[in-house]
Design a protein that fits this description.
Number of helices: 7
Helix content: 10-25%
Radius of gyration: 33 Å
Strand content: 25-35%
Structural class: alpha+beta
């Protein structure tokens, strides 16, 4: 009897132990499964914003990235990183403002706004706080224009609508701002200034003008494209310029007007000191007034002895922009014997930074004219060509005389190889891809400082 009781107690204890062990294992398994599953938010239905579009101009704050979906939803991919959004936040270009046009709210109460930059380059969802009626988080309201002082003289004339024309809003201050149709206006029309504003980021001054003859025609124009002097062309104060394409068709016309000319100038040659209301000489005006996308040729010869009241035909050709390919010519048979470098060959994985104005000066030109490789030296003046990190497999002698031990990081410094570059582009014209030779001039221990552009393709000039 007593022995049977002990056996029963022993069995009971074992059962309890096994039960507790199984329960503990199940609990651990449950906790483990829960901890390993990543939790994603779910987004509600998309809602288009209905308020006045001009009240939905926003700018990045730099605190949140831009995603293909609300950022906490499964499958969301980065469109613009937090760093890129920070750059857009401090940008001095109106093109980098955003327009908000839609919204989604997650099950966690987070609001994500659908936005697009004014130039259309970036589009996606950005965290906007916890309210779908106010912008917060990664974006905030933006005033793309700032009130400016009205001019004393409110009657102006448009100097050259090929270069500066009317817009529904100054370019990129509103999404999809467009040019105003000036079909029923003339170069002699007077315009009344109704408002003045500056682009908040660029600081450039714009006038809102109305045509004095046809008041329904109105729009915004860069103040530098207006003049208070009448641009009415007469036989004694003007020269008409007709820009003619290679096939003989007229691309556009423009009038250079000297406001100080009198009837005595009729039939007289334009003096080298004569200027228009913008203080531009005839030759300078002809070059600047060339239609967009074209380049005027043989300007000085075409204008020799030009008289007031006449028409001058200026031949123009399509303007073309060349791109560049880089080659390391140090240990190869020149450019033709090498393989084109990529962005990955340079520090930071990006091509060397070059300003837009420097690129335009060196790479844009008449598509029928031979490319001038000498301009590349000016374009790359002061530009650092540093290689990406390299790791030495053996001891390497640095340019300062020290030894870079095997397994140590170092980088190379390049400079433009003008001789191989000129030889490789003998028959190249503007618009062609230009092969640029680079040669190693020094070897330096450690990594190079990255001062290059953020765009790894630098599509402005490198391909």
């Amino acid at each position: 009897m007593f022995g049977g009781k002990k056996i029963m107690q022993s069995s009971l204890k074992k059962s309890l132990y096994l039960g507790l062990a199984a329960l503990s294992f199940g609990a651990v398994a449950t906790v483990s499964t829960t901890a390993s599953a990543k939790s994603y938010a779910t987004a509600g239905a998309y809602t288009a914003l209905k308020t006045d579009a001009t009240t939905r101009n926003v700018e990045a704050t730099g605190t949140n990235a831009l995603y293909t979906k609300p950022g906490t939803v499964k499958g969301a991919k980065v469109v613009a990183s937090k760093a890129t959004m920070a750059e857009l936040a401090t940008s001095k270009k109106s093109a980098n403002y955003f327009r908000a046009y839609g919204v989604k709210t997650t099950n966690r109460g987070s609001v994500y706004y659908r936005v697009v930059t004014m130039d259309g380059k970036y589009r996606g969802y950005v965290y906007g706080g916890n309210s779908d009626t106010a912008f917060a988080g990664g974006i905030k309201l933006a005033n793309t224009l700032t009130d400016a002082t009205m001019p004393v003289n409110k009657t102006v004339y448009l100097t050259n609508t090929n270069k500066n024309t009317l817009w529904t809003s100054p370019k990129y201050t509103q999404y999809k701002a467009s040019k105003v149709n000036l079909q029923n206006t003339t170069s002699t029309d007077a315009w009344t200034v109704l408002a003045a504003k500056t682009k908040t980021r660029e600081g450039s001054l714009y006038y809102y003008v109305q045509n004095a003859t046809t008041p329904t025609i109105k729009g915004w124009i860069y103040a530098g494209g207006t003049s208070t002097n009448s641009t009415a062309a007469t036989a004694y104060n003007s020269v008409t310029i007709k820009y003619q394409a290679a096939d003989g068709s007229t691309v556009s016309t423009a009038s250079w007007v000297n406001p100080k000319a009198t009837t005595a100038n009729a039939g007289q040659a334009v003096a080298d000191t004569d200027v228009n209301s913008s203080n531009a000489k005839l030759a300078d005006f002809v070059k600047s007034a060339a239609p967009t996308g074209y380049v005027a040729s043989s300007i000085n010869n075409d204008l020799t002895g030009v008289k007031y009241g006449t028409t001058v035909v200026i031949n123009v050709n399509k303007q073309a922009t060349s791109t560049l390919s880089f080659f390391d010519t140090t240990n190869s048979n020149g450019i033709t014997g090498g393989t084109a470098m990529t962005a990955a060959n340079f520090v930071g994985g990006v091509y060397p930074a070059v300003t837009a104005s420097a690129q335009q000066a060196a790479l844009q030109g008449d598509s029928t004219v031979a490319f001038n490789t000498d301009n590349l030296a000016t374009m790359f003046k002061g530009v650092a060509f540093n290689s990406a990190d390299k790791t030495s497999t053996t001891d390497v002698k640095a340019s300062d005389g020290t030894t870079i031990k095997a397994g140590t990081v170092y980088h190379e410094v390049y400079e433009l190889d003008t001789t191989s570059t000129k030889a490789a582009n003998t028959n190249a014209k503007y618009g062609d891809n230009i092969k640029v030779g680079l040669k190693v001039t020094s070897i330096v221990a450690g990594s190079a400082t990255n001062t290059s552009v953020s765009d790894p393709t630098n599509s402005n000039y490198a391909k």
